[in-house]
Amino acid sequence: MSRAVRFDSYGGPEVLRIAEVPKPVPGPGQLLVRTVVAPINPGEIGIREGAFADIWPATFPEGQGNDFAGWVVSTGEGVTGFAAGDEVIGFAPRAAQADYVALDADAVALKPLGVSWEEAAPLPAVGVTAWAAVDAVQPRPGETVVVSAAAGGVGVLAAQLVRLRGATVVGTAGGHNFDFLRSLGIVPVSHGPGLAEEIRKAAPEGVDAYIDTFGGGNVDIAIALGVPAHRINTVADPLAVRRYGVHGRAQEDAFSPVLVAELADLVARGRLAVPISTVYPLERVGEAYIELARRHTRGKIVLSLVPEADRERERRALFGDRSSNPT
Ligand SMILES: NC(=O)c1ccc[n+]([C@@H]2O[C@H](COP(=O)([O-])OP(=O)(O)OC[C@H]3O[C@@H](n4cnc5c(N)ncnc54)[C@H](OP(=O)(O)O)[C@@H]3O)[C@@H](O)[C@H]2O)c1
Which positions fall inside the Enoyl reductase (ER) domain (predicted)? Predict the structure, then answer.
C-alpha cells in the first residue's frame, strides 16, 4: 500500500484526504516512479471545486496533482532509456500527489543530478506553460515585453525566458516583490489601479509584446497599450482569447519530455531560477492549497513526499549503491 491524495466530492480543501491505495503496477511502456516532490497548481483548485466540471469532470474518488519528480523504481515491458534508480521529472494528470506513480515513459525526462527535486518538479507544468507563452509572442532582442504576475509560478519563469531572448521585461507585482523581481533583472510595476499608466512610464518607447499569467483585465490593458493581438498570450483568460483573437498557448500545447529536459538544463546551468516559496509535507496538502488560493505565491509551493532528511536513506534502501542517471 502507499499514500495518495484523494477527494470524494467537489469542495474546498477540506475534501482532500490522504488515502492508502495499492501501489500501481507499470503497464507496457510505463515506468513506476517513487515520487519525491509534487508541486501544486491553481488549476487543481478549480478541478477540485468543480468549476471545470463541464470540461474536466472528476471521477470519484479522484486523484490530484500533475507534475512531479522522483526515482524510477521499475520499468514495464518494452521500456528503453530508463532504469531503476534514475532521477526523473514527469507529468501524470490527477495522479502525481502520491507515493508512487505509474505513467508512460514518453511523459518523462531525466532530471539533471545538479538540479534539486524542488526546482525540477514544477518544470512540466509551469515551466512548459511559461515556454509556450513566450514562444507564442516571439520576443526579439531589444524589445520590451510585459509579463503579468511576474513573481508567480508561470510568470517568474516566463519573465526569465523572455530575458534569455534578449528583451527587456516589465513585470507586474505587488510592492513586496519589487526587489525580488529586480534581482532577476525585471523592471517591476504595481498591478494595482493605474496599471496601464505605470507600464507606459516604465516603457516610454512602447510595449512590443504582453504575456498575461493572471487574467483580470490584463489583455484589455495590452490591447489598450496598442500591442498587436498576435504578440499577446494569456494562460489565464480564455474569454479574452475569443474576444480579441490573442494567443492562449499553454502547457497542453507544448509539453514534451525534450522540452522539460531543455528547461532542466537551463536550471542546471544557472540560467533559469525556480523560486520555491514553501515546502509542505504531503499530510498538509490542504494547508498548501489554502496558501496557494491567496494568489500571492512567489514561485512555487510544493509537496514533499520524501522529507529531505530521509532522501539519501530511502534511495539507498530502494537501490543500494546503484548510481543515479547515466552521465
Ligand atoms: N492551461 C495551462 O496549461 C496552465 C498551466 C499553469 C497555469 N495556468 C494558469 O496560469 C495562471 C497562473 O498560474 P500560476 O501558477 O503562475 O499562479 P500563482 O503562482 O498562484 O500566481 C501568483 C501570483 O499572482 C500575482 N497576483 C496576485 N494578484 C494579482 C493581480 N491582481 N494582478 C496581477 N498579479 C497578481 C501574485 O503577485 P503578488 O504577490 O506580487 O501580488 C503572485 O506572484 C493561473 O490562472 C493558472 O490556472 C494554466
Answer: 11-303
Task: State the distance from the centre of ligand 1 to the C-alpha of 152, rounded, in angstroms.
Answer: 5
Residue 248 Cα, ligand 1 centroid: separation in angstroms?
15
Query: What's the 23 CA to ligand 1 centre distance in angstroms?
Result: 34
Q: Do 11 and 51 meet the contact criterion of CB atoms below 8 Å apart? A: no
| Tens digits of residue pLDDT in 248-289 | 999 999 999 999 999 999 999 999 999 999 999 999 999 999
- CATH number of this structure's domain 126-252, picked from the four choices 2.40.50.140, 3.40.50.2000, 3.30.450.20, 3.40.50.720: 3.40.50.720
Determine if the peptide bond prior to 281 is cis (ω within 30°): no
Atom 23 of ligand 1, residue of closest alpha carbon: 152
CA distances from 258 to 25, 212, 255 (A): 25, 25, 8
